[in-house]
Amino acid sequence: MQTVTEEQETRYAELQLMALEAARQGDVETLQPLLAAGIPINLQDQKGNSLLMLASYHGHREAVVLLLNHGADPDRRNDRGQTPLGGVAFKGYLEIARLLVDHGAEPSADQGGGQTPVMFAAVFGRKKMVAYLQGTTAKRGANAFLLKLVTNLASGVRRIVARPIPQTTGS
User: Fold this and answer.
1) Residue 170 phi, psi (nearest 5)
2) Separation of alpha carbons 81 and 151, rounded Å
3) Using DSSP, how many helices (H) and how many strands (E) does the chain show?
4) What backbone torsions phi and psi does residue 50 show, to the nearest 5 degrees?
């Protein structure tokens, strides 16, 4: 078993801080090699803000794309229960909101106290963001309804097909 020296631990902590700052600043030239070297994609700071949360909140589209393409969790919550989409909705970064939703962020996720990203956008007058998030929420709701309907129909068909065919007696 290989042991880690105190010097190595210190250097790793420094690299983590560099990654967090690079995400906050949108510095993809620094962030890319750190991710390639093994910095955890969902690394969080002392407040629970992930790399993706920091890049998103500060409006750094290129860094957001890099992190999402490396598998960052678009619904990773910070210590206040907020997701990257909640921060983006508050700030009004529509293009980043689209990226997050396209990668699986939940537009109706509770951000604490029953607040949702749509509510954050509305409170701060982000009309385009409100319209987009309401549209994605409605679309997802319709898709969930259709999926349930198709699943129920398929289940019914399976039950009918699985029934034995009644034997008739010849006359």
Assistant:
1) -75, 150
2) 33
3) 8, 0
4) -75, 170
| DSSP 8-state class, residue 113 | T
User: What phi, psi does 59 have (nearest 5°)?
Assistant: 75, 25
> Which amino acid belongs to residue 35?
L
Question: How far, in Å, CA of 70 to CA of 145, rounded?
Answer: 31
Residue 50: strand, helix, or coil: strand
- Provide the token pair at 21: 């700052």
In order along its 171 residues, the chain shows pLDDT tens digits of: 788 899 989 999 999 999 999 999 999 999 999 999 999 999 999 999 999 999 999 999 999 999 999 999 999 999 999 999 999 999 999 999 999 999 999 998 999 999 999 999 999 999 999 999 999 877 665 444 444 444 455 455 556 656 666 666 655
Residues constituting the chain: 171
Q: What is the number of other CB atoms lying within 10 angstroms of the CB of residue 140?
A: 14
Neighbour count for residue 66 (Cβ, 10 Å): 21
**Rounded alpha-carbon distances, angstroms, from residue 86 to 89, 116, 122:** 5, 7, 12
Measured between alpha carbons, how far is 31 from 43 in angstroms, rounded to an integer?
A: 12
Cβ contact 34:18 at 8 Å: yes
